[in-house]
């Protein structure tokens, strides 16, 4: 799963330009390695282990409150952040606050409408959970609705990892064929997804002062005498 996400994060961030980019969470993933912005920061929670890359790192208490100025970032990456946040709506609102107009937000998460999601919920209590128990997994349609309430315009989602939840390499090898079949026949049932969104801000139209144009000089009405058809001496 991490290999799939790494490849697709590299593709998603490679052509995003600007000056400041931030990755939140997931120390096992370097989502900004293919990006070329001069300032790239990895924000981590207090208990997250340090990642292996040598870029600047920032410790935060929670992603619902980010220590960045409003409209100061060009790119925010949220790998599996929303589904483990205590208030995912607030995380999105905070991302909307710190992103500049036309800034990009890229998110990944577990798909509840997949074999992994079915294994997590249908066999709950029968088998140990395959995914983290505390995760509140969010489907793509629901995530799109949340973004519409803010100022984000979402693009087409990408799905991956169609194999069933296997814990052994032997099981993964036996179900390898499902990767190509799933991409073709049931793409929205991938175990993980990635959604990219752009912050849209309605532009204002500058209207100049309404200068009064000089009015044209109007002609003055003058009464003119009219003849009534009679002669001056009253003769008919």
3D architecture notes:
This protein is an alpha/beta fold and 236 residues long. The protein has one domain: Rossmann fold, CATH 3.40.50. It contains 6 helices and 8 strands. The protein has helices at 2-13, 88-98, 115-122, 140-149, 169-174, 177-185, and strands at residues 20-24, 39-45, 57-60, 73-79, 99-110, 152-154, 158-160, 192-199. α2 links the parallel β4 (73-79) and β5 (99-110). It is globular. The protein starts with a helix and ends in a 37-residue tail after the last strand.
Explain the layout of strands and helices:
Layout: H1 2-13, E1 20-24, E2 39-45, E3 57-60, E4 73-79, H2 88-98, E5 99-110, H3 115-122, H4 140-149, E6 152-154, E7 158-160, H5 169-174, H6 177-185, E8 192-199
Parallel strand pairs: 1-2, 1-4, 2-3, 4-5
Antiparallel strand pairs: 5-8, 6-8, 7-8
Question: TL;DR?
Answer:
With 236 residues, this protein is an alpha/beta fold. It is 24% helix and 21% strand. The protein has six helices and eight strands; from the N terminus they run αββββαβααββααβ.
Order of helices and strands: HEEEEHEHHEEHHE
CATH A-level architecture: 3-Layer(aba) Sandwich
The main sheet comes to:
8 strands, mixed
Write the CATH homologous superfamily: Vaccinia Virus protein VP39
Helicity level, as a percent range? 10-25%
What number of structural domains do the residues give? 1
Coarse shape:
globular
């Amino acid at each position: 799963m991490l290999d799939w996400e790494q490849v697709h994060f590299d593709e998603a961030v490679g052509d995003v330009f600007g000056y400041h980019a931030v990755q939140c969470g997931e120390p096992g993933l370097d989502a900004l390695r293919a990006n070329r912005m001069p300032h790239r920061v990895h924000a981590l929670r207090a208990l997250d282990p340090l990642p292996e890359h040598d870029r600047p790192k920032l410790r935060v208490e929670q992603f619902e409150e980010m220590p960045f100025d409003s409209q100061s970032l060009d790119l925010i990456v949220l790998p599996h952040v929303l589904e483990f946040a205590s208030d995912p709506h607030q995380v999105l609102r905070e991302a909307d606050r710190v992103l500049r107009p036309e800034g990009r937000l890229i998110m990944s998460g577990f798909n509840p409408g997949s074999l992994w999601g079915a294994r997590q919920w249908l066999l709950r209590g029968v088998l140990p959970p395959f995914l983290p128990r505390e995760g509140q997994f969010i489907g793509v349609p629901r995530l799109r609705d949340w973004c519409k309430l803010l100022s984000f315009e979402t693009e087409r989602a990408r799905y991956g990892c169609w194999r069933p939840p296997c814990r052994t390499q032997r099981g993964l090898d036996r179900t390898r064929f499902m990767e190509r079949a799933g991409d073709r026949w049931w793409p929205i049932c991938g175990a993980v997804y990635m959604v990219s969104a752009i912050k849209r801000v309605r532009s204002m139209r500058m209207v100049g002062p309404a200068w009064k144009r000089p009015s044209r000089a109007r002609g003055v009405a003058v009464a003119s005498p009219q003849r009534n058809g009679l002669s001056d001496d009253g003769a008919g």
